[in-house]
Design brief:
The chain has a single domain, classed as Four Helix Bundle (Hemerythrin (Met), subunit A), CATH 1.20.120. The protein contains five helices and no strands. With 117 residues, it is mainly α. The longest helix is centred in the first third of the chain and has 28 residues. Helix content is 79%, strand content 0%.
Length: 117
Amino acid sequence: MKAQAGWSAGTFVSRFDGDQPLARELVSLFLLEYPRMMAAVRDGVQDGSADEVRRAAHTLKGSLSNFTDLAPVTTAFALEQHGAAGRLTEAAATLAQLEREMEDLLTAMRQFTEAFP
């Protein structure tokens, strides 16, 4: 399986002693929750709520860190920091960056779940 965005399904599965069904279930749960987490960040930015941006980005960062230590985690952390500092203009730009970074990771995760039905 091709690794995208630096994410390796094989490496992820190895964290669970090769238990593909467990790894697939965890990825599937993330894929189900991801839209809600991103919507919370977007809503915070659109509503001008720095605290909501901080909290939602923190939640997303924590969830992402279970799967990767790549750019999306760093960007989610930056988003969290923008929220904590009340920098909503920067948060909007960082959110757009995060969405771009997530595209390849989400594609790789979807391919992983589809490869092991």
